[in-house]
Design the sequence.
C-alpha cells in the first residue's frame, strides 16, 4: 500500500537533509508478521528522494505512529504536502529461527565470494556449455 504524508502545511526537505515524515496512523500486526517500508521509485528518479534505512522495518509489537525516514539526495529543496504519497508498505509473514553456533559451515558452490559475485557460478556453467 502507498503511505501518505500526514503533515500540517508543507514540510521542506533541504538537500542532504533527513526527516521523519508522519503518516497519521498506528497499527497492530499479529505476532509473526512485519511491515517493510520501501522508497517510491518515482521520487528517487525525479527528485532524489529516498530512504536512508531502506527497507525500514516495523515489528509486530510496535504501537506508535508510522513514520517514514526520507533523505533528499537531490540539489533542490523538496516540498511534501499532506496526502502526498511518500513510500510503500508491504506486510510479510516472517519465520523465527533458532541460531546455532557451529564450528564449520557446509560447503556451497559460491563459497565465500562476496560483493559482485552473485551469478558467477551460472556464468562458469554457461562457459562450460560452449556455443550451442
Sequence:
Amino acid at each position: 500500500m502507498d503511505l501518505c504524508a500526514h503533515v500540517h502545511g508543507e514540510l521542506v526537505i533541504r538537500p542532504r537533509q533527513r526527516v521523519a515524515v508522519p503518516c497519521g496512523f498506528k497499527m497492530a500486526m499479529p505476532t509473526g508478521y512485519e511491515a517493510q517500508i520501501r522508497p517510491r521509485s518515482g521520487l528517487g528518479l525525479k527528485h532524489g528522494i529516498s530512504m536512508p534505512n531502506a527497507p525500514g522495518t516495523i515489528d509486530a509489537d510496535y504501537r506508535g505512529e508510522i513514520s517514514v525516514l526520507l533523505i533528499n539526495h537531490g540539489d533542490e529543496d523538496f516540498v511534501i504536502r499532506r496526502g502526498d504519497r511518500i513510500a510503500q508498505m508491504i506486510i510479510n509473514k516472517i519465520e523465527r529461527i533458532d541460531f546455532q553456533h557451529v564450528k564449520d559451515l557446509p560447503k556451497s558452490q559460491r563459497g565465500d565470494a562476496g560483493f559482485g559475485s552473485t551469478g558467477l557460478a551460472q556464468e562458469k556453467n554457461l562457459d562450460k556449455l560452449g556455443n550451442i
Observations:
- DSSP finds two helices and nine strands in the chain.
